[in-house]
Amino acid sequence: MICLAPFSKKKFNITLHGITHGFDYINVDTVKQVTMSYCQKLGLHSAELEISKRGFPPLGGGPVRFSCNTLKIIKPLHWTDPGKIKKIRGVASCSRMSPATNPRVIDSCRGILNAFIPDVYIYNEHLKGANSGKSSGHSLTLFTESTTGVAICADCTAQPQTLPENLATETTHQLLDTIHTGGCVDSTHQYLVLLFMALTQSNVSTLRCGPLTPFSISFLRNLKLFLGVVFKIKVESEDMEETGVRKGLNSSLLLSCLGAGFENMNRAMT
Fold first, then answer.
1. What is the pTM of this model?
2. Separation between Cα atoms, residue 164 and residue 221, nearest integer Å
């Protein structure tokens, strides 16, 4: 839906109902804090996700409202400098559970992250009553911001009978692994940036990222099949060792392509 919304005739505004924190896909906190951040950098300046309630499996019950502006054309992208992590933020949410759940998650999470960076803040959101959806559950979302505005995320929704400390450890390690791979976009949002690169005007766009996921590889094949856009992929080695401390992977991928020149014919040029 986020891929199609910018090319509608009028401003996109839709309310969705159901599960907001699933086990096999990113949750609404990641979409609100990270996906919307990418959308705004891609030209969707009014992209916004409003969370009315949270819905955990299996019954859900969490309405959210998504809105964004439309685009006539997409400008070329040049995302090559990931910068350095300057702060980490997060949201620990639980519904129809003990109020002590979130503090246990936050304490365990900070115990790991504070060894790397002092600026860590995780928001505690405990829901009960009418605002808590239809099922009980708890989740943790972590996201970073770098000196160049790059956002990296990790989230996890706890399976039944999962301890809060285990949820915090799993999510935190997932975030650190994602940071370790490097790049200007995390693996979850690779497809979104690649799509906008392929649809830009007839100019070259560049992106630095970590290893491509199997989904991103298949997505690149589809872009070639449907749009005729072929990406040039270059492996760039970098000296990431400083004073004997391992800083990250010693190589990254530099992707570049010539846009297909797509235009939204439903919207008049302004």
1. 0.90
2. 40
